[in-house]
Amino acid sequence: MPITVKMPQLGESVTEGTIGSWLVQPGQQVERFESLVEVITDKVTAEVPSPAAGTVGEILAPEGQRLSVGEPICTIEGAVGVDLEPAEAEPAAGLGVGTEEAAGAEIQATAEAEPSVPTSDPTGNGQRAPEVGAPAPEPAPAPVAAAGGGEAGGQGFVSPAVRALADEHSLDIAQVRGSGFQGRITKRDVLLFLASGARSSPGLAPAVPSMEPAAAAGPPARPSPGERVPLSPMRRSIAEHMVRSRRTSPHAWTMVEVDMGGPAAARAARRAEFQAATGVDLTFLHFAMKATCLALRAVPTMNSVFEEEAIYLRNEVNLGIAVAVGDGLIVPVVRGADRYSVAGLAQAGSDLIERARRGKARLEDVEGGTFTLNNAGALGTVMSQAIINQPQAGILVMDAVVRRPVVVGEGIAIRPIMNLCLSFDHRINDGAAAARFLAAVKSSLEAVTPETSLF
User: Fold this and answer.
1) For 241-289, what is each residue's pLDDT tens digit?
2) Active-site option among 167, 169, 327, 426
């Protein structure tokens, strides 16, 4: 019996999605719950599973096409293993399969704010620097044949879930042949390759260069004028969200300087204790998270949403942390962040960031944010003007902590200074409220001492 697979609904507020990449091709045999296609929304990227075993029939939606929830995306011929009314001959709404197992399809969250890399590092900025003098990486091994019909070499788009699986097993994706649509590499291809043990041996002799004389040199080739790189689904989603945000909110911007001497001293004095107690390296990001939560309580209009006839003040502080992933970024959310200590924020944030980077973020990890903090200073920035993560009222960027001369009293001293840059929706807040918010964050950070409670 043929059935139709529909565009899934991924989240209550999601009404449409874009076909990212097909993982199967017409005529291919699939098992029930085997991934068929990646669907991208402005919140998540999800692999849609097959509702039944059978043969892939017609691909009804090409890659890059945007569809509303419930529109058909493909058919499965000779479907076995799904209970359907004969008159309908199509799966239920939701994930397009109507089963709890399908609802467990792997989800990777995507893009909604400016990039950031909040990780632990020796300086406290949140970025781990490469080792000086580290040897250059070994060249990639030659591709080895594996099961499937596509060509080896990992050419073309590889889904985040497949990439994460390969990285988890330290596998060079270029060794795997793809059996999916247009030779795409699927999870099944990677698993079969790993099971076969057919990895390139590091001891293989390199190819012997040809001894034939080179052809006579002709006129120099004209340099290429450039290269057009097609938009990935994630990059397209980011682009659309950023344009929509600029069109929706009249952005205004302001900045303050913060003396980070207190957090630096606290980190130096209590870093080992904190690591032993929480398993997380204490960084400036964690102090900034706490200070931001306190400021959002002090200036509630910065934790609000603009509505047609009102400004809705949110009760909960759900702090989003912008995280760079692959060629884009996502914003995992620490819910009820104002109820956490510095240690609690560090642990909750670390778990979310780790899941996001491994491609294991869940839908609930990225929903419901009320304000976004971006640690762009981890990348060395010193003055950033970010775009608001709709429908929030603002986004705060902590730039790099830089030692520089400043006036202290009647003298000049070298102090660790950080710029805090705030983009805010001018429909909701004026400059005075924005300044009060930044002053509150600054005051909290500059009040930190080695004796400040972290737990």
Assistant:
1) 899 999 999 999 999 999 999 999 999 999 999 999 999 999 999 999 9
2) 426
Q: Of the residues 167, 169, 327, 430, which is catalytic?
A: 430
Fill in the amino acid letter for 196. S
- Render pLDDT for 29-70 as a digit per residue (tens, 0 to 9): 999 889 899 888 766 777 888 989 999 999 999 998 888 889
Task: Please say if 169 is a catalytic residue.
Answer: no
> pLDDT digit string (tens) for 164-188?
778 778 888 888 887 765 567 877 7
Q: Distance between CA 22 and CA 105 in Å, rounded? A: 15
What is the pTM for the complete model shown?
0.65
Hey, what domains does the chain have and what are their CATH numbers?
3-105 (2.40.50.100), 143-199 (4.10.320.10), 235-446 (3.30.559.10)
Cα(165)–Cα(174) distance, integer angstroms: 13
